[in-house]
Design goal:
This protein is of the alpha/beta class. It has nine helices and eleven strands. The strands form two sheets. Strands 7-6-5-3-4-8-9 form a seven-stranded mixed β-sheet. Helix 1 packs across helix 2, helix 2 packs across helix 7 and helix 8 crosses helix 9. The longest helix has 18 residues. The model has no long low-confidence stretch (mean pLDDT 94).
């Protein structure tokens, strides 16, 4: 079937073609959106909202720290193992801005699954929530991971509230099993040190790999699908085109920078990663992250 078969079947307002060369990378899309929608809310979680400008500053600090406090080079793999918290988009966009390849890691993985993914991906760094520290400690000797960045649930909250949340999670709900990872650098320290550093832009092209997205492993060992910057940019532009659909009044149904999208599905999964972390970002819209949808 020819592609032009669909040209008169799309809803009003949706173009028949997109220009995938409109951007050179996911990073360019991100940086443009952060400038265009600077004062608009980007992500909210646990009562805290980050604007696009704040997300840009935090991710730049994260990228600068990676560039100047590690020997990680563009193309190296960094695993991110967190649920839906504000630290996730900061780490992902920060890693991409440093030229690294993000390895999305399910926080519910067993030690066996973590070992396989980290070794298969060739991960050299890991960003994780402290609730998973015990599993990280157990698998670390069997991997090539050299750098650990440890986040806590309350990192992005105001100081008093953050301390309270971390204390409740650890001491009251007993959700942090005992572990010992003295080499881990706190997420807040990374941002604090990174703020005084300068992020050096990394040249990227559409053919560069951006993400290793692992399959569910239902037909054997989980396999890492190589998603290029071009793959993700194409997804974003396709959704942006679909958002051009007109309603009965002739106006766009989805308005850039004005919509709110609830995200109960985990961002480390390909659906929410694409729909929330990528596609809602290019439209300047607001993602409300649900950490535990249960």
């Amino acid at each position: 079937m020819q592609a032009d078969f669909w040209n008169d079947k799309r809803p009003e307002g949706v173009p028949s073609t997109i220009d995938i060369r409109a951007y050179t990378s996911v990073v360019e899309v991100f940086e443009r959106s952060c400038k265009r929608f600077a004062e608009r809310p980007a992500f909210s979680n646990l009562g805290v909202t980050l604007s696009y400008a704040e997300l840009e500053r935090h991710s730049a600090a994260f990228a600068a720290w990676l560039q100047q406090h590690t020997d990680l080079k563009p193309g190296d793999r960094i695993a991110v193992q967190m649920p839906n918290v504000l630290q996730y988009p900061i780490a992902v966009f920060g890693a991409l801005r440093a030229g690294l390849i993000v390895v999305n890691t399910n926080p519910l993985y067993t030690e066996r699954e973590m070992r396989h993914q980290f070794k298969d991906a060739g991960a050299r760094a890991l960003v994780y929530l402290n609730m998973f520290g015990k599993r990280v400690q157990e698998v670390l000797p069997d991997t090539g991971i050299e750098y650990l960045i440890e986040a806590k649930m309350g990192d992005m909250l105001p100081a008093a509230k953050g301390w309270l949340v971390n204390t409740v999670v650890d001491k009251v709900k007993k959700m942090v099993p005992a572990y010992h990872l003295p080499q881990a650098v706190p997420f807040k320290q990374v941002l604090r040190q990174g703020r005084s550093l300068t992020h050096k832009p990394v040249p990227l092209i559409l053919d560069d790999i951006a993400v290793l997205q692992y399959t569910g492993g239902t037909t054997g060992l989980a396999k890492g699908a190589m998603l290029t910057h071009g793959n993700l940019v194409a997804n974003m532009l396709q959704v942006l085109a679909c958002f051009s659909q007109h309603g009965p009044d002739g106006q766009r149904l989805i308005k850039e920078g004005q919509e709110v999208m609830i995200a109960p599905l985990p961002l480390y999964h390909i659906y929410a990663f694409t729909a929330n972390c990528m596609c809602m970002m290019v439209t300047g819209n607001h993602n409300v992250l649900i950490t535990n949808p249960r």
